[in-house]
Amino acid sequence: MHVAVFEKLLAKVEPVIRRQNRSDGMSAERRLIVTLHIKRDFYVNDLMSGANSVDECINLSKSLANVLEKGCFKLRKWFSNSPEVMVALDEELQSSDIVNMGKQENAKSLGLSKENNNNNNNNNNGVGNQPLTIQSAQVRTGRMRWTKENNIQLMYAYYKTTNIETDMTLYRSRMHKLWTQLQPNIPRTEQNLASQVNSILRRKALSQAELEHIKKRVTDEAGAATGNIETRQSDDAAASDEKDENTTQELKQQQLIRNLASEEWDLKLSANILKYEGLSDETRPSIPKIKVNNEVMRSVKEINILLEQKCLACESLKDTYHLCYAAAVTVCEATGTILGKNTEISIRNNRTKDQIPSWQIRIENNINKTRQKIGKIYNYLDTRTVTSKKCKRDAEKLLLKEAKIPPRAPDRRALALVYLDRLKQKAATMGAKIRRYHESNKRKEHLRLFEKDQKKFYRKLNEETKISNNGLPAKEDMYRFWNSMWGQGVNHSDEYWLAKEEDRNQELEQMADIKIEKEDVQKAIATTQNWKTPGTDKLHNFWLKHFSALHGHLAAHFQRLIDHPEELPKEICMGKTIMIPKSENTQDPKEYRPITCLSNLYKLLTKILCNKITMHLDTNNIIAIEQNGCRRGSKGCQDLVIDNVVGRQVQDKQRHMSAAWIDYKKAYDSVPHSWLKKVLEIYKINPKITEFLNHAMTLWNTKLIVTGPKKTYETRTIKIFQGDSLSPIWFCLALNPLNKILSNSNLGYKVTKRNKVVLNHLMYMDDLKVYANNPEQLQSLLELVSRFSKSIHMEFGLSKCATVHYKKGKLISHENVTLMDGTEIETLKTSAYKYLGMLQTGQIKDKEMKTRMKNTYLKRVKTVCKTYLPGRQKIAAVNRWAIPVLAHTYGVLKWSKTELQEIDRATRRTLSQFRLHHQSSSEIRLYLPRIHGGRGLINVERACNRQNNKLATYFMQRDTYLHPAICELVRGYSSLNLEVPSVQEQLRGKALHGNYANESQAEGIDKSGSIQFLTNINLMGETEGFICAIQDQVVSTRALANPSNTSALDVRVFASVHYTERHDNIAKIIHLEMLKYLKIKNPEKKYYEYRPQELEENEHHKVYWNTQIQTDRSVVHNKPDIVWIDKNEKKAYLIDVAVPLYHNVVKTAKENISKYQDLAFDMRQTYHLKATRVIPLVISSNGLVHIDFEKNLKELKLPENIISQCIKAAILGTVNIVRRVMNMEP
């Protein structure tokens, strides 16, 4: 190891690096090595460095001397432990100012000196010139901690030697050689370096922006090394030709890089295709849900291009699925996703959830020690108890050592009390720190869960409804019960009604042949959820949706399966059924609800078939009017409306009526396959689709998985799969003949005698309610229902069936209804029956349901307010979780205007209680959408009116025998026009609350930018409510308005500090982003922790912060907030930030431009600039943004998203001023 030492240079090394001249003929690689040595090997003003050979050391010494001399750092003293280096440098660096320390006897540098050695060269006086023995620079061996600078240098070497990952052949040896040149003092093996590269990419130790910057640097240096970058010529024509040539060369190089990258993707994809070929779905690792970002989408795009060629070799649907799986695995590997794990959880939870951080353990120990001290001092001072000698001795020792209170101090007790109180404060502050940490964690956890999975977040809030696990059923019992229902092959029986149904549909037009196109696949996959739990294929919809190259081939394979059902793979008909307990009796197999996860390929195919079949059903009006469960475009609450209207009519008109509620036992799980096949034939479904579905039923299979300790039972299913789009419409078809049988019976309740409109049943999927004029008719209708149900082997759930009877509008008791087969349906014994979520007897119990729904709604609002979500997400949670409780009743229950207004008032009281809404703030603005400057809360009264209006329009537009008759009975429906603009006009008309709304619409204000704090920024709920109260001018700030008030003047002086802090915070955001964009530095601090330097510069740019600019003439306003000088283009930008009151935004922007015009003119003359621009950045104290703010940011080439940061800084600064200065509670 040859070492050259350069000593006693002038101070500061960093300016040397900044002043390097690219025209010195030094290569980019050599310049990088010299720069690294200067940065790494300086100690104050001494430099010790070295190389692996004499020639390298000589070249390095010359380069260092040359670069340092150009930076005005003249070489003073030097020596080396190599005579060859000393001779070469002595000849090269001839100067009277340079001292060769190798010729001095007692030379020292960094504490290292020469030793006697008579075998070395002698001087002229004959005295032995001792050779200088210098210790080599410390070489790191073994394990080491990689710093960020080391990682950057390693990634530079990696990208340099692999040509940005396009030439991976034997790259390790080349990378190791370059690393040895860059870091000679950190020897690493080839395997060490390769492993560290993988670790950096996997752990994302460097950000994507840093990696892109390193790649760009490598690309630029490669261009420079090959001669693509030439010096600018004076001749314009020659310069233009050279530019075109360089551009063409760059395009060719980029195309080459893309081709090489494509080849690398191809190799990875091909490797995964071979790796997972032949593996069953069970043995393949599951593909986890990943966080979608730009990197993932770029990888998906690259793979999708390759799939266009790869999928040509796929001969079957199974091959296409295998290709899609391999492509998904390739993307996961490229993004560092671990297969078989939820990466979002595994990455976040590197340490266990229950693990306590070390700092918290340390603070808790300090709290315990402090409490012990408090106990000792308290017992010592307590005169009511007798203190032991040991306790007294410990307390006196504690007072003497820590409190410095001697035993004979005259006021010893008073001083001890002060010390005791200080200990209590200390314990309280340490506890508050831990409490603040836990609250911060809860905020992050709640926000992360809300943004990731809102359903799961709401389930977590509703923990009281969670069913406790009281033990699982035995395996034999679970298998026996469900296999008896699914595993026994039963057939339907032919009854008289079957022949009539076939005759009725004899003239029905046969469904045409289908042709599955690529557009059908795209339409079906577009509406699916990306990360819905997959079935046994372990393939999420995300991959099927975004690998669009497969869509055409999937359509072709699906069409072939329809034409040749025998080719249907067995694997895609396999289900995974999760058994969810329905009650506390978890040991009973009957008390479980099966939820089946099916293959996404199977669901995609059945969804396409469902779209085709639904078109046939709608065209021919096959589904009965009374069936409202699967009809597209229908209102789900119409059954409740009709039922409630009929019940009210019975009581108001004092009429007779009998009704029955019918519930089927395990309805979905009871329909036999033979009947499913038959209904497809009856309703003329395309024969090819019928044949395909018949074959698919023979392959249906599922695995039962019981929640808790996982128990798996495999059984063949004879049910309809509950998990695809086709199942509901197929089930409704299976029950459709029942609707026809009841409708043709001429029995039922007469809704209107004049028009002879008869209602005998309503059905929502399998929930059936039967109506009749008297008990005899009711029994006849129930006989029809019973005979139909038995013929298709569906049983009544008698425990949930009931009858009710009215005579002259009054509820009467009646004997149970006994059918011909001995089935007995009991009369309703409880106070009410729950039908479609509503408690009712003959009609819905309005008062009881209103009270229940109102209490549930307000409870959910309060629960949401107690969470740690930001204000915007809390309002969204109220709208999406609490409001639907009431929305289910709109149009069904008869809400009065007073009741709805009371609910709105109770909501506002709850929000005010949790400081989300100021009690004096504008009510109108609270309900205004956020895109119009409001808070976005749904108004209960307006929502109810809108729903009533829509429901009335729906009933009046329905051309059936029943809906017009119901419209005649319904009163109170009217056409309401509740549009947002009318609400906005109402807000602007307010004398006080309307000021901000009017100013936000004024000329010169950016309307969309001014509401970003409501739409894009996650402010805490109380902060959002407080700033809205300030904007509504309901917070009293009149104390500052009276100049004669001395205290008010003191407050203004005190407030000026906070005004400056608010202003500077906004300017810091601009300054930080500017330094990053100009590549002067990349500070990683938050803007409120950042302390700007007065001057920051590099080779191309110079940025001043709050500095007086010197000119040849005296200028009054010569201190802008930020000045940016572009050295290359000879331009200067004078940036001034202002935070005025809301009504002075436009005025302040104009004043700032005119204020700095003189300075701009003088700077152009003094510093020979081509142009100067004054750029005002104006945001009002309450968040209004000047209309040119975004345009000015674009001119400064800054990202647009910092508008949100600036608004947030302005708003938080205003809230801080009002809370602190005006003596308000924090």
From TrEMBL:
CDD domains: RT_nLTR_like (cd01650). Residues 561-840 form the Reverse transcriptase domain. InterPro entries: DNA/RNA_pol_sf, RT_dom. Residues 111-131, 217-248 are annotated as: Disordered. It comes from the Eukaryota. Residues 116-125 have a biased composition (Low complexity). This is Uncharacterized protein LOC115883766. It comes from Sitophilus oryzae (Rice weevil). The lineage of its organism: Eukaryota, Metazoa, Ecdysozoa, Arthropoda, Hexapoda. The gene is LOC115883766.
